[in-house]
Amino acid sequence: MIPQSFIQDLLNRVDIVDVVGRYVQLKKGGANFMGLCPFHNEKSPSFTVSPTKQFYHCFGCGAHGTAIGFLIEFSGLGFVEAVKDLAQNVGMTVPEEDRLLPAQRAEVQAKSLALSDVMTRACDFYRQQLRGAPAAIAYLKGRGLTGEIAARFGLGFAPPGWDNLRTVFSDYDSPALVEAGLVIDREEDGGPRKRYDRFRERIMFPIRNTKGQVIAFGGRVLDGGEPKYLNSPETPLFQKGSELYGLFEARQAIRAAGYVLVTEGYMDVVALAQLGFPQAVATLGTACTPTHVQKLLRQTDQVVFSFDGDAAGRRAARRALEACLPHATDNRTLKFLFLPAEHDPDSYVREHGAAAFEQQVRDAMPLSQFLLNEALGDNDLDSSEGRARAQFDAKPLLQAMPPSALRLQLVRSLAQKTGTAPGEIEALFELAQPVAKARKVAPKTKRTPPMGLERQMMRLLVAQPLLSSELDEEAIGAVAQLAPDNAEMLRTLIGCCKALGERANFAALAEQLRQTHSEFDALVAEIAGETESDAAAARLELLGAVRQAKMQVMKAEMDSLAAQGLSGDEAKHRYRALMQQLEQLRREAAVENMPR
């Protein structure tokens, strides 16, 4: 786990204007920078980046966060990946739990950079070669592709010949070329070692990671040779079970369309982009994996898998279903589109038009229906054996799902089809956190939304975390008496502020709260949309709120003592002490409110 102190130090060194400015065109507007929001379509800029808060906020769609949050949302990186990317740009090394020595870690990073450079140079060579390859150009034009779309995806051509890359790399014998998967070393029986280019006479599709770096290639033959598609082998840069072709190019289109379309091949992705569906991606000659699904769900909550309607397509769809199940929650839509056996997405759009294909996407089969179809299959539900077999087939599928309302709906549907009670299905399948058999739900405690003084204090602390040093236990206790429902929330916030230490700021606190305490999201968004507050004025406002809370507590206790008749010396003494304390607080308030 990355220490919070490192995250704080990183955010203090990174300039969010530079980070966002790599992807969004920003213009100075007062104290902040403005631009068109990359997370929703808009014609006039409502997206602001604050250099003082080190935070971005969109007044249109509400998106907000730190530099780390921006990379996660925009590039689809995981938290650790985003932190590493930012750290690398400012020369910081992310502390890790691995046992690599600093020198070993530096060696790994140097090797990765060397391989990345090799892949970039090869990609430039293949692109240049395409310009002088009339057969390859004719093939692409025959598939309906324009030069513009070919350039967008960086398409190239590996010419005939065994060692064309020798013209690119003076050190053709470098081990990096083998490690990158660009060349093959083979020892002939009893003869010398022979080295030659892996890709020859093929259309080249560069595969990029979420940062846009070329990490592998896919090559398609022009004639009827085999294999039709040849992919890079797995390398330190490339693991095919983790990468998706076209995801880097499709990110903006996915957000605009509201869904991502997963296809089975490179040409599907490029052709669909040409035909008006730039939100398409493809797996890389392998079955869909949970890692693929996780990457897609970082971009959108709606994923549509497109498969051929033949037996091979059904098998691929089943594997995709299994990969989706751990991520099938109530706020996500996962669907399966089965085209007629004679069509792939490219040919379907060309024959029936974009509107017809769009309708096919809308009508795609929901995960719930596909799961039930797979479980029920051809089983005879009129027989005990058939119903038992359907439950047997459904068990591993339902066990793979997280507890959710969707899983409960599937349990009920299966129970109805097989003549079983939902609670019995959950017990028989040993489902985690069963829902159907829980008849009584414990009443939810109503938490009053933060109002009044406690909300005022929380706002001030989020905007100026260093103010937490002004709050002692007496001050917190006074506010807690006034708003007991929110006392724990206030204590949590104060604890987070103080844990950040003397270098605490809004961005560091917001990032920590995003990771651990989502109940503060709305408050963070509210502060993000406001102008920077003055620290001195905020301090006076906080001390005033604390004083007001103490005064209200004192008045309430005095009213209680008076209502009891002030019987006894102890009550009278306490009443007089409270009056003196109350008067002292009033004098302090009068002094602070005097004009300066």
Question: Mind explaining what this structure looks like?
Answer:
- This protein is α+β, with helices and mostly antiparallel strands and 596 residues long.
- It folds into five domains: 4-89, DNA Primase, Chain A (Alpha-Beta Complex), CATH 3.90.580.10; 102-231, Alpha-Beta Complex (DNA primase DNAg catalytic core, N-terminal domain); 247-355, Dna Topoisomerase Vi A Subunit, Chain: A, domain 2, CATH 3.40.1360; 372-429, DnaG, RNA polymerase domain, helical bundle (Pheromone ER-1, Up-down Bundle); 452-593, DNAb Helicase, Chain A (Orthogonal Bundle), CATH 1.10.860.
- It is 51% helix and 12% strand.
- The strands form four sheets. It has a five-stranded antiparallel beta sheet. A five-stranded mixed beta sheet has the order 13-12-14-15-16. The protein has a four-stranded antiparallel beta sheet with strand order 6-9-10-11, covered by helices on one side.
- Strand 14 (302-308), helix 12 (311-324) and strand 15 (333-339) form a beta-alpha-beta unit.
- Helix 3 (67-75) packs across helix 4.
- It is globular and about 105 Å long.
- The model is unreliable at 438-451 (pLDDT under 50).
